[in-house]
Amino acid sequence: MEMQTVNSMNCEQFLDVFGNVIENCPLVAAAVWAGRPFSSLSALEKNIGDFLDSLPRSGKEGMLRCIPDLVGRGTLSPESQRERSQAGLTSLTAGQRSQLSELNASYKGRFNFPFVICVRMSDKETIIQQLGSRIHNSPEQELQIAIQEVKKMCHLRLMDISS
After folding, report:
1. Could you write out the DSSP letters of every residue in 94-160?
2. Cβ–Cβ < 8 Å for 132, 103
3. Per residue in 62-110, pLDDT tens?
């Protein structure tokens, strides 16, 4: 997609195209739209990252709460359904599903937001391993890791849009 096209979009058009680069959180795209014109896709991505970094802790946590659980709660976008399928999350054994559900419930109880990982860069075994490991992080560490994972997802979704 040409940047001239992106920069000429009104807010509604921009949200139609970029509203889900952060899963279920079009507010991010709406806020970033005001930063046009973007010189490149990388500049748009940097704007999104800067916006996420500028949020207070409560805003970061709120954005993370918009992301559906890996198993269970939340409506998945077509992008998320495809990503989870590619990572093997749609073909979990009963034991893996139970383990993931239990770990995710513990994680949410500890951090007050769902476990976030860029599933397109992982497989189901890595996801389960990371969830079991990251639950021992401090709340501040985990918030920063989760935001970095969101940025990875955003990058991949922007690449999909531009191709």
Report:
1. HHHHHHHHHHHHHHHHHHSS-----GGG--HHHHHHHHHHHTTS-HHHHHHHHHHHHHHHHHHHHHH
2. yes
3. 999 999 888 766 678 888 888 888 999 988 999 998 999 999 999 999 9
Taking only the tens place, the pLDDT of each residue in 111-126 is: 999 999 999 999 999 9
Residue type, 134: R
CB-based contact 84:90 (threshold 8 Å): yes
Q: Which residues contact 144 (CB under 8 A, 6 or more apart)?
A: none
Reference 48, options 23, 68, 67, 75; nearest CA is: 23
Q: Kindly report the pTM of this predicted structure.
A: 0.93
Q: What is the dihedral of CA 47, 49, 52, 53, to 10 degrees?
A: -110
The residue behind tokens 């990572």 is 87
Tokens standing for residue 116: 């976030």
Vertex 113: Cα angle to 112 and 114 (nearest 5): 130
Q: Report how far residue 96's alpha carbon sits from residue 111's, in angstroms, rounded to the nearest whole number.
A: 22
Amino acid at 108: K
- Taking 3-state DSSP, the helix, strand and coil percentages for the chain, each rounded to the nearest 5, stand at 70, 0, 30
